[in-house]
Every structure is written in C-alpha cells, then in structure tokens.
Amino acid sequence: MPQTTQQITEEMDLVAHWLEIAFPDRVEMLELAARLRFHRGDLDKAEQLWRRAISIDPTYPFAHHGVAIVRALRGDYEAAISEYRETLRLSPRAVEPLLELGDVLIKSGKIDEAIDLLENDFPSTVESVWRYTMLGECYLRKDDLTKARLMYELALSRNPNDSSALYGLSLALVRQGYQSEADKLAQRLKQLRESERESEREKRRRFDEREDLARKLAEAYSGAARFLLSRNAVDQSKAFAQRAIQLQPDQPVARQLLAEIRLKELASLAPVTQHVSPGGGDHPTNTQSQGEMPSDDSSNKKP
C-alpha cells in the first residue's frame, strides 16, 4: 500500500491509464479516469477523456458536467453554459450543476438568465444558501434592493454566519439608506471573517494531502468495482473494492460491494448445502466460519 503522497499520485496515474486502455469504449470507466486526471490537476487530459465519453454516448450527463467544470475554470463561460445546460437537460433534477450554472451566468453578466434559472428552475424541495446569495447578487446588480435584501435575509435565516450573505445585505442596507444597520452588520462581518481566517489556518495546518488523494483514489476504485461487478467480473471487482478499503477504511460503496459479493458467494453455496446432512462431518459448508456474514457497514451512497 502506498505510504506517501507521491506514491498515491503515481497510483492514480496508473489507474487512470489502465481505465483508458482497458475500457476505451465504456463511458463509466472513462469518466472515472477523467475524474482522476482532474484531481491530479491535468485539466486538458480530463477534458479530453470527458469529450471522448461524450463522443461514445452523447446522453451521458456526467461527462457533460465534467467538461462544463473545466470550461468554467478556464473562463470559457459560453462553452461552460452550453455544457451545463446539456447536463441539466439530460439530468433535470441535478442540483449541483444548476447552482454552478447560476454562478457562471452571473460571472458572464447574464443576470436575467441567472434569475430565471434560480427562481424558476430550482427544485422547490431543496434549500440552498448559495442559491439565495446568488439571487441577492443578481437583484443587487439590477438595483432591485427590496428583493436583494429579501434574498440575503433568506440566506441568513438558513445560515446566520454566511459571510457572502452578510456582505450583500450590508450593501443593500447602505443603498437603502440604513447606514446604522449596515454598520452593525459590517462589525459582525469583520468578526466573522477573522474567525473564518483562523479556521482556514487551522484547516490548512490539519490538512493531509495524502489522505485527501487516497480518498479520491478509493472512490475511483469503488466506481470501477461497481462496474466490474455489473459485468460479472466478481474476482476483479472484489480486488478493487478491497483496494479501496485499504486506501479509505470507511469507503461506503466498496463495503457495500463486498457485502453483495459475499451474498452471491453464499447463494452459490446453497445448492451444495442442501445435499449435506446435519451430520455431514467435515464438509467445508458445515463449518461455522463459512456461514458467518461479514460485519461490513453497507451503504447506498454513491461515489
């Protein structure tokens, strides 16, 4: 098992390369390879793999989402918007790309489009502080101070310590002429940002790059294991899931897959045990250890 950050990044590269070579026409595996490349900071290769997946299956939303993220990071907002819209067309209930699209629309100056998206297309059952702060910024830019203030207040009602909402609300209050209220918010914001800076310093101090990369690699192994199990490559799937757990002991998908594999193994033994008498001596299926279920914690959480 890799012990250093460098060893884990090298394994990430090897796994990504293997996924590309072994499954050149499987969009699920190309997406996993692209994600690994993305985590390694190779945006060009990640986008290339996501685009290859799209060329194989234009209806695969994860690949469109990946391209959208890369285009947005590069400041190519028009291309990003197009890919985000395609992602949402293919996966209309996805919240994350919808919020990201709203952010890109604001950055590109398409304020009315952002408002329409965030007001009308956002799922009514989902609460999002980010959505309200973005709407607040939109209405602030349109000089609709009443709506801007309402949106920032809605954000703060869900997270009283959201610095973006506090800052936006203070701007709206100043422009409405409520200077004293704005000053109180400004003081609160100053204290909050000092606390955030201290928290960020502590986070950086505690941040373990090796652990973070190991978790991402474990997610890729788990995704590959799930695909392999769906293709009845049980032994290979089991090996990948076990590798994921070595990297991240609490990896939920890998643990679920190992439990599923164990159930398949037990099911395959059932016809044999039916022909064994209660006093069947030393037949391996009569031993207690063969009948014990694993204690792994299974979960339906996807990688």
Automatic annotation (TrEMBL):
Region spans: Disordered: 272-303
InterPro entries for the chain: TPR-like_helical_dom_sf (IPR011990), TPR_rpt (IPR019734)
Coiled coil: 175-205
Key words of the record: Coiled coil, TPR repeat
SUPFAM superfamilies documented for this protein: TPR-like (SSF48452)
Pfam name, any one: TPR_16
TPR repeat ranges, renumbered to this chain: 27-60, 61-94, 129-162
UniProt protein name: TPR repeat protein
